[in-house]
Amino acid sequence: MSMEIAGKLGRFSFGMGDRFAQQGRAQLAACAKALEAGVAITPVWNKSHREHAIVGSRPESVRREADEAVAALGWRGPYFVDADHIRLETVDAFLAPCDFFTIDVAESIGRPASPESLDAFCSDAGDCGGAFGLTRQRVREIAAKYLGAVQEAARIYRRIEGAKGRGQFVTEVSMDETDAPQTPDELLVILAALAREGVPADTIAPKFSGRFNKGVDYAGDVAQFEREFEADVEAIRQAVSRYGLPPRLKLSVHSGSDKFSIYPAIRRVLEKTGAGVHVKTAGTTWLEELIGLAEAGGEGLALAREVYAEAFAHREELCAPYAAVIDIDPARLPAPADVAQWDSQRFVAALRHDPRCPDFNPHLRQLLHVGYKVAANMGERYLQLVRACEETVSRNVTANLYERHIRPLFAG
User: Fold this and answer.
1) Does 237 lie in the same domain as 268?
2) By C-alpha distance, which of 165, 148, 15 is closest to 83?
3) C-alpha to C-alpha distance for 368 and 362, rounded to whole angstroms
4) Residue 14's domain is classified under what CATH number?
5) pTM to 2 decimal places
């Protein structure tokens, strides 16, 4: 293993979630299509502790899925397995199979650091060179809010480093699942604090303005997002120059799943600045499995209808863990009795993310996005049918990742 495995992430990397560890080959095929188009993208399979707990899987299953897909397709580039949204109390189970760790400290934002450590940081940081109009007072205000979270990230990082060795894994620090977005001046101070705490971050996932819901497009001012994204790229450039963070450090657009409307903005900034990016998707592969089942008709369509009926019946329970990242109007959800009469075309039209289609229903899509526990409860019955419908399922998985995500971002 290279002494600097983290350096293999590359300029462009793409996080792919797979709830049931069935679509590794189909996912990797999308990255292979990008390579054929002349764009090298590093695939990263990501799955969180919460997802493992709901599905009843273990982190080792993601490593196995990734390794088998790479072997089957003869993939020669680097690839990673991401312990997504880990905390100190959940990291240990991911140490052996993972080589990418998303350290989630959003819940620690606002928790005060000790007065002594706050004073010491502010003494060292000064006004951060006056970048973004920072003053000593403003630096102190930012540090008072974020230093405790940075110190928690450092504790988790040191736990991973102790087990894996320095340079043997990719480090992402995530602060995106919180109420308020981080401004570029806040990001610069956060990065200064990470450097002082000895956390060599490879990617940083701030919260951007706008709404990043699960399963549907970004909702917000795209022009404002583009300005923020470019300013954050500049904050990273300055942090690398000032504080000795890894030159490969790049932004991670971590929140949400289908954030199509901001992809052109991200691409413009990347082309303008030469920066890199890590983009994560989540849950989209699970929805493409359902679409593939529905397209197959017969038992596949029947199971897709059944999943919806169960999700509808248990919608409050399923939505509760995701309440901050979904907007579902119950009045816009079709009755299961109506869905039971839908043919394949009608079900696919309601679920597939195509706002131009009059039958597309974002409320149904969001409910099914968070409803994967229903399929998990079906156990082997669900998995066997997915395998039986492999042709339609894998075709949809690959097309979704490449045509809707990778190509607009990276491949033209």
Assistant:
1) yes
2) 15
3) 10
4) 3.20.20.70
5) 0.96
- Residue pair 201/240 in contact (Cβ under 8 Å)? The answer is no
Same domain, yes or no, for 232 and 377?
A: no
Buried b (16+ CB within 10 A) or exposed e, 132-155: bebeeebbbebbbbbbbbbbbbbe
Residues 327 and 200 in one domain: no
Q: State percent of the chain over pLDDT 70.
A: 99
Cα distance between residue 100 and residue 77, in whole Å: 16
Q: pLDDT tens digits, residue range 119-150? A: 999 999 999 999 999 999 999 999 999 999 99
Question: Which run of H or E residues covers position 161?
Answer: helix 136-164
Residue ranges making up the domain that contains 390: 285-396
Residue 247: both structure tokens together: 């030159």
Secondary structure E strands in 225-338: 250-253, 277-280
Cα gap 290→3, rounded to integer Å: 41
| 31-57: pLDDT as tens digits | 999 999 999 999 999 999 999 999 999
Taking the C-alpha atoms of residue 310 and residue 198, their distance in angstroms, rounded to an integer, is 48
